[in-house]
Amino acid sequence: MIIRDFLAWTQNASAGGRAEATASLARAYLYGDLNADEAWEAKTALLALLDDPSPLVRRALAETCAASARAPRPLVVALSCDVPEVARLVLARSPVLTDADLVDAAALGDEATRAVIAARHHLSHAVSGALAEIGETDTLVVLAANPTAKITAGRLLRMIERRGDEASLREALLARADLPPEVRHALGIAVAQALSGFVTDRGWLSAERCGRMSREAGERVALEACEGRGAAAVSRLVTHLRTTRQLTAGLVLRAVLSGRIDFALAALADLSGQDHAAIVRAMRDPRQFADLHARAGLPEPLLPAMQAALSAWQDLAGRALPARGTGLSRRIIECAIEACGDLSDPHMHPVITLLTRYEAEAARDEAREAARTIAAQALARETARRETEAADAAWRAALESQRQTAFVAEAGPDETVIVTAVANVPAVAEPLNPVGAILDALPEQILAWYRTEELDPATQAATDRVLDGLGDSLLDHFRASQGRAEPDSEEATSDQAARIAA
């Protein structure tokens, strides 16, 4: 009955009316209390509406069913294959769609549709991997910025490989909290390559010099990416560097000269095929380390520098003086240069040149750190000086405000007399007599009332109310100034006035 009446009505209704009726019917099916027969008829009517020629009807149907897990799967799948403005509604959040449905929609849809899929909550590895492989920059940025998307390290590296030259993608990836160290290293390499290309195009440096700077930057990033990571993460980074042919003897030497023995241990274990326990024992014995050095395939001229650097590191560690952060340690470098400096073999010249360049880099790093410390101290002193000046200015403003305080006296139930002290009193002047200032500012009418010898009862009552509000000390002082105070009270009045003035 429902399907027959509803479909008959839709034959002559407008597109807007059909859209409203479709939304009502969908809500009744999803959230209404329908029996089995009514639910079947409503479902059949909704499926029939997929053939409605107006996109408004199908859009209303998609908006109503997009977030519901009770929506019929054939209906949702059909809507996901509809025109983009209809399909994106269900692709963005429908829990009915499977990973296969989303991958198929990403492969057949346009870039805006892929971006909608990339923004879904709790995106699976399969869908993220498909988007990482076929998505363009906009889609990859949305995917990287989705904190709930599950993306493997391999797919993150693939994204960098495809669109690592885009700054927006690099920023979105660096904002992720679960970024593996090998991905951070790849991002550092991408940034170094972008900067090198810019400098080379400008003609500021040669391609060879930019290439060497990029390699050194990649080495620094590799060690910095291991900061705070466990042994498993470091081993994974070493494996990545080896497979990409970036695990060089210079990087291993830099790790030792920087005191990053965890990286050096993982690199030697990966290159030699020995376990970590054997590597640790070899690092303590020069003979065993020479054999390990050969098994790892490191250049023979590098052996004296490596042995001297390991010995210097052990000495610093024994004295509780570890190397500074992930940067090169000048103490260890000096020991390595001393071990290689007396050798006349020409094969040692490249090693000495490398160590000399490392020493210059360490000196520059120390100078930068010292300059930052000095600048921070200077900024702290300047900030403290400005805060002191601001506090002093505020105190002076408050003091000046107190010197310009207003005195209020109630003249009666319906009248208020406001008496203001003298403004802008010079800092160096005669002491201010507050009693005299108040009495000088009193209206002449009150003074006339007070000077009158005989007052009528009404005037006398008003005058008494005003005088009662002024206080006994002020009245006594005023009577004394007018010669109307009692002889025996003149001395007390003078004392009271002196206390008020003080």
What is the secondary structure topology, with strand pairs?
Blueprint: H1 2-10, H2 15-31, H3 36-48, H4 55-65, H5 73-80, H6 84-93, H7 99-108, H8 111-118, H9 125-134, H10 137-145, H11 153-163, H12 167-174, H13 181-202, H14 207-225, H15 231-243, H16 249-257, H17 261-272, H18 276-284, H19 286-295, H20 303-318, H21 330-341, H22 349-403, E1 406-412, E2 415-420, H23 434-440, H24 444-451, H25 457-470, H26 472-481, H27 490-501
Helical content (DSSP H or I, runs of 4+) = over 70%
Q: Would you list the SSEs in sequence order as H and E? A: HHHHHHHHHHHHHHHHHHHHHHEEHHHHH
Average pLDDT metric = 82
Largest sheet: 2 strands, antiparallel
- Poorly predicted regions are 406-432, 484-491, 496-502
Q: What is the strand tally?
A: 2
What is the CA-atom radius of gyration, in angstroms? Answer: 43 Å
Give the overall shape.
Answer: flat
Question: How many helices?
Answer: 27
Q: In whole angstroms, how far apart are the ends?
A: 100 Å
Which strand order do you get reading across the main beta sheet?
1-2
Name the beta content range.
Answer: under 5%
